[in-house]
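Summary for the lay section of the report: proteins are chains of building blocks that fold into shapes. Here we show the chain for Single-stranded-DNA-specific exonuclease RecJ and then a coded description of the shape we predicted for it.
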Amino acid sequence: MKKWRINRPDPVKTAEFMNKCDLKSLTLDVMTSRGFTDFDSLADFFKGEELSDPFLIKDMAIAAEVINKAVDQYDLICIYGDYDCDGVTSTTILYNYLESMGANVMYYIPEREAGYGMNMEAIEMLAEKGVKLIVTVDNGISAVEEAERIAELDMELVITDHHQPPEKLPRARAIVNPHRADCPSSYKDLAGVGVAFKLCAALDGGSYDTVMEQYADICAIGTVADVVPLTGENRTIVKRGLEYLANTEILGLNYLIDKAKLDRNALDSTGIAFRIAPVINASGRFGSPLTAVKTLLSEDPEDAENYVDTLLNLNAQRKQTETEIMTEIVNHINAHPETLDHRVLVLSGKGWHHGVIGIVSSRILEFYGKPNVIISIDDDGNARGSARSVKGFNIFKCFQHCGELLDKFGGHECAGGLSLKAENIEKFTQMVYEYSDPMEKFPSVELIADKLLMPQDINLDNVKGLSAMEPFGAENPAPVFAMLGVRVDKIIPLSQGKHTKIEFSYGSYRGQALIFSLAPEKACFAVGDKLDMLVELGINVFNNRESISIRVIDHRLSGVKQERYFAAKDCYEKLMRGEQLPASFIRKIIPTRQELIGVYKYISAVKNITLDNLFMKISGDSMNYCKLHICVDIFRDKGLIEFRPATMKISYVVPKQKVNLEDSETLVKLNEMLGKAGN
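The coded shape description reads as follows.
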């Protein structure tokens, strides 16, 4: 179960804004719930921010001068990119622009195995090729030693980047990075491709006219892929880019859009984020990033289609590898359920592809709601890890605490990476536990609803009006709404039972909602039950007729008190970690014989159920999550059920003989803890 937070709009402000603009009431409710309390800021959001003068970014004029001089002298210029989608699109834009200027230009992107950013081996190779000027895109801001070597080799260096600068900047002719402390540019959140885009405009005398027409589509893809805030200038770039993407002249993108089965008339940032960007990223994860660059540059139809097919195959490999790693993790957790009792999960495996461990980490965070570190061990005993966290638990500070064991680490509050020797993983894991487990309050993943949706809110005009907020992405997510007390009238299986559709009543509103990846037989609800749901709203068009679509993001039976659930879950984990709790509490969570009988009867009747669904069905004043989990543990100890902790699935087992629950390992352990706690 995930924690929900339902925000409240400001009805006074909504009414005030409705008198000043033609936005719909539901859209204005979302905006006021997100903190837009004055009309000027609201108007600026929807009007869109004009792209500021590229020369406002520190060193942009110098960078343009150095590059233009190299072009005029026909010096060999190398665009030095990065292997992710942001780096690939940055490389493509700048290379294509310089080539169209008649420059003597090449590009270089290191393979993932070489690591992020510049490396000495590549620099030596570029010098041997006769490169006179290196221009970095989406990297370089931390390349202090590499920059010195470039100078020693009598090459010039221009750095364009968007990552946070270190205290000491590299030696370069120009360092174009909006995050520089001395940069006067007001907008700081550009992706690497956004900085490259502005560099092209600077090379064109400061005008965006040509570069917008030629590169807005590619720039939009890189911007969405890098998950930078879709506010301000980024919002403008993506909005314009989506317009150009629908009719793009880039052969590779045309093939990719068609093969991804995207509707050209309804291209949006979600389509980029889930259908285009992962395919481009796959080249850097499983193949060569050069394949992705060639896909975007190719002017030969046959070659372009072949490149796209290669990318799609690589993406399929990526998905398969993710699934294999997730299967290993599930098996590990089922064999070692104590793993889940800790506040931060540390999971490692041999040969896990380091190109996907970041994605796996994100999936683990989403599924378990816990910060985690996923570590891949190679044949030489070296290990690399990727981490994801939640706001409120700084994973980078956790790494600092463990720094003595790490060869290298970096990151910020919610994400990070590290490398260490495999022999140190066990000690590293213990240090992570020592750092995180004792924390008094620990944050969890929250699903945020913009407002409680009322039946009268649900109409075509209101739902269509939400599109004014697009493009959606980081810091401007698609609106989410809460619906409380929805009555289930009918349950309909879809796609051979893979998904579920429900027909429901919500006050005066009658509608349908889709719940993806939920088989009807695994649902926590039945016809007649009342649900609380978090949903996204959209418009379906079929035979030129529009209808409202409702997609369920999360759901639970009505009446669940989430604060009690999470408090009891935290107490259960403390018990399992062996933390001493008051005797009065331990006595309260030891189930009585009658409580055990009640829980067992329910499980034996339904045969298969998840722990959360069981909790929603039978919890009450005397049966909280902690006590219920203990009941399940007791039944597992005595072989009355099969319990798979990784998925929290409970399966009834027909008993072969009578058992004595009193001597179960769980009850014995609890009674020992009670004895230590005293009376």
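Put simply, here is one thing we learned. The longest helix spans residues 301-335.
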